[in-house]
Amino acid sequence: MILPERIIHKRKVLVVEDQEINRDILGGILEDSYEVLYAGNGLEAIEAIQANLDDLSAILLDLIMPVMDGFEVLGRIRVDAKMSRIPVIVLTAEKEAELQALQLGAADFITKPYDAHEVILARVARIIELSEGRRLIGATEFDPLTGLYSRGFFFEYAEQIQRFYPEWKMDAVVLNIDRFHSVNDLNGREFGDKLLILIGEEVRLFLANTNGIASRMEADQFFIYCQQQSDYHVILSRLQNRMNLLSHRVSLRLRMGVCPWIKGIGLEQLFDRAKTACNMVRGSFRRHLMVYDESIHQKEMYYQRLINDLHHGIKNHQFKVFYQPKYNIQVNPPRLSSAEALIRWNHPDLGMISPGEFIPLFERDGLIHVVDAYVWEETARQIAQWRQRLGVTLPVSVNLSRADVFDPMLENNLISLIHSNGLHPRDLKLEVTESAYTDDAEQLISVISRLRERGFQIEMDDFGSGYSSLNMISSLPIDVLKMDMKFIQNIEQNNKDFRLIELILDIAKYLNVPVVAEGVETQAQLDLLRNAECDLVQGYYFSRPLPPEEFEALIVKDLELGKELAQ
Ligand code: C2E
Ligand code: CA
Ligand code: CA
Hints:
Blueprint: E1 12-16, H1 20-30, E2 35-39, H2 42-51, E3 56-62, H3 70-78, E4 88-92, H4 95-103, E5 108-111, H5 117-139, H6 151-164, E6 170-177, H7 180-187, H8 189-210, E7 213-218, E8 221-227, H9 233-246, E9 254-259, H10 267-280, E10 289-291, H11 294-315, E11 319-328, E12 335-347, E13 351-353, H12 355-364, H13 368-390, E14 396-400, H14 402-405, H15 410-420, E15 428-433, H16 434-438, H17 441-453, E16 458-463, H18 470-473, E17 480-483, H19 485-489, H20 495-511, E18 515-518, H21 523-531, E19 536-538, H22 548-566
Parallel strand pairs: 1-2, 1-3, 3-4, 4-5, 9-10, 12-14, 14-15, 15-16, 16-17, 17-18, 18-19
Antiparallel strand pairs: 6-8, 6-9, 7-8, 11-12, 11-19, 12-13
One calcium ion binds next to loops.
């Protein structure tokens, strides 16, 4: 086995012998080359093995002992997955016992009276090398494309480095290509492969100088385990420059996450953190390198806290649904037309948390359905309550996350909610963000179409922020367009944004659907939108999102206005 030199290290071996004189002899032979532990019988041996499971390299085992003999120890080791990884060399004077010991899984034997010192040392060394080699070989596989280590081999190897050199400062580095899938789709697999090979080459050059190892984990994700570097920008820009040479046509961006060595931290956690850091610069135009640090750690802990507290929070009514009105501005004075339900989390220790913080987090972790189901239920109940108390049905829209749309129970759940509150599907409108339409559009369109057939109305949220093509928009099943807030925010100063708004209004006219302008804060914005024939407006100009008790006053006010106008 070609074990890299630095892996050779003072290994731990256990000598199990009941006779002190024999223990001394073996100890004398081994102690220069090994850290030697001793046990006087089988029971002590099992205890010592258990206590040193991770880094015990070999066991030298006498067969005839009081309390528990060597055969029983061998039997116990053999049936234990962890213990059986450690090779056993049997110490025996009886020829007959050898065969039995080998059958019980011993790796080798040393005969008493003891062989020459060199023979014993050579046997122990060979057995250790064989067993470590076998573990590595068992996992050996090089990635055929880049020649870097396979995943299994990489981790086995990194583990050995960590086990035998716990004081070495080894950092975890994760390397990724931004939007590799589209690079592959647009330029062909062959180009993608060339790119990966090139990165593999450059990574290997880097390893040579840093005592590192590397692997390609999946498609375009590389893991590197190397001695601490003072500045990772150096390697990143070298890689980036090599990639730039590959093609002038294709714009390629690498990103890198680093988790610096922390004493005693497990490999999995180290690489998880490097991955987190790497994901933080995904798609960013300015930053391509992130080093995991305390502030990221704090943020992760905060997120973890939110995730842990979610269920308890829902059960204890810490979540509150707020309502923000949408006004029809094509009549004078403007009239209340509907509302949007927006969730808030009033956390007992962390205070009011805005959905911008926890929604993306729960979407990422697959928990969003918990929040959304709660909001839909609350909203349906609230619409029914207002109708009962005030005699009007005010439609309210709720937000659907991408994951909701792919829940096979979605349609049933919504329908039963509508029925149990005595509502009509048109009373509970559904907002789906534009970006949800861009991936896997077909499935989404079929779900949305079915919901529309059942009578629900679909509002396309944040329109203009995504990348839907004009071609696609015309075939989308939608009832309302909600223009992304960013267009409104600049219209006063920026003529170009106003042109975009006009363009969106034209598209809506072509699709024959009304437009909601979100984020309207000023009279000037309102006037511009009214003149451009925008139908509905939602924003601080009219009202912030309000708790239901306060929102009720807006309904009452609008009812009175209606009565006045009728006179
Ligand atoms: P969104 O669906 O685009 O909601 C509009 C956001 O704009 C809300 O932020 C609202 O408070 C804010 N807003 C309204 N008018 C104005 C204005 O005049 N100026 C400014 N600067 N902002 C205004 P909020 O409530 O913080 O919600 C943020 C996002 O969180 C929402 O964006 C939505 O994507 C998500 N969200 C909120 N509630 C839920 C929910 O129950 N389920 C899901 N899946 N997502 C939700
Ligand atoms: Ca929305
Ligand atoms: Ca929106």
